[in-house]
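Risk register update: the risk of archive-format incompatibility is retired. Evidence:
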Amino acid sequence: MKKTDNQVLVIFGASGDLTQRKLIPAVFNLYIRGFLPDCYAILGVSRTEFSDDEYRKKVVLENKYLNNTQQISEEQRQSFAKKVFYQSLDSDENQNYDYDILKDRLTKLEADVNSCDNIIFYLSTPPSLYGTIAEGLANAALNHGTSGWRRLIIEKPFGYDLASAKALNKKLLCHFTEDQIYRIDHYLGKETVQNMFVTRFANSIFEPLWNRNYIHRIEITAAESVGVEKRGGYYEGSGAMRDMVQNHLLQLLALVAMEPPVKADAESIRNEKLKVFQSLRPMSAEDIKTNVIRGQYIESTIKGKKSDGYRQEPGVDPASKTETYVAMKFFIDNWRWSDVPFYIRTGKKLPTRVSEVVVHFKPNHHHLFAHDSEISNSQNVLVLRIQPNEGILLKFSMKIPGAGFNTEQVNMDFHYDDLANVYVPEAYERLILDCMQGDATLYARGDSAEAAWEFIDPIIKAWQEDDSIPIFGYPGGTWGPEHADDLIEGKNMVWRYPCSNLTNDGNYCEL
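Archived output:
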């Protein structure tokens, strides 16, 4: 196990929901599993007034989300709580005296827990405060240690568009170096996402086929069964393109489409991911109209119950054109993927919650058994399921017992649940540990974030400026606008319509 330095985790926005639901439980799991160093502390920072004991009670002793992790004892909970501290700080304005108070508290904490001047600053705050906090830390000389290191974790979204992403990068780099900045995307912390990398590059039966010569198309789906719920106000300023496609789905795409890195280290892997973003074929105005479908869920009946449409949600403009669904077709202009279509789909109030990557291989050139059945010579399909029912599914044809050569497509699958007694860490748990150990492999780099925005920005601007581009309504509980099926190239080709169960899906038709 890689050595972890003694350190302090400072969480800005420490009274917020993310800290209580995800961050504290993630660090607690690391503590239970023995991954924390001997000298370690968490310092919560926000505007709310708490004493150390009051904050410990809120996020540890009475935090119901800790109960969802593992079997824990009261002694373990009490012991972990002693590592948690709190400091009230107004981070809305860049006032040096506030950050000086933080600096004094950290100096005292360093002496108390022997943290060796190593500090991670986690910005669990609105994105508008990222630059302000970074500047405040720099003004108080907290961006560099005298004997230790400093790291800065930033939550998504990283920018609202290309211009704001560039401005934020520029401001952060005025105060921190690129190797100090960790742009977190919790999708990349999922064990199944990381396994895509291993599936490709550790298995000789896949990598030689992973190119335009053998692959017909690749789909990436991230479906949610719920609507925006109480986040209508936030979602109005975001939409599915900013909320899911620009970060989560393009990061998945990079792992699927990247070239083999020279080494399995952060710099090599992130260099190859950047090349994918740089190779994305820019969309013309006509491409945006024909190859990008946006939708918005409307009022429907789901399982016998009335379900409101997006425009009826609290905080949403009754005339809103914010998309809750995006489907798109695009291409990667390099040797490996020339003319192979990639499809991305995400949406809210779809039939089930599921995220997966689907690789459709080309059928045999000679359709030897085509006379026997409609599904003969159908495509082999590899499904990499990210969530739920995590695993891998391979679909291939077998002969049906009896006379003749009638064939049927069958499944060969593996489920992570089959690995008995193997602990699968939560995404935040893995990502926080990586930052503690200085491993940025699963974090986005600034140039990659900007390159992703360069591809997405023209689409969002076209939607804003061209009223002729429609937004299609789709009933909640369906798979989105029917126009999305028109994106798929090939006769009778449609999206894979998955169930929460990995092996259940719709039919595949031949080319």
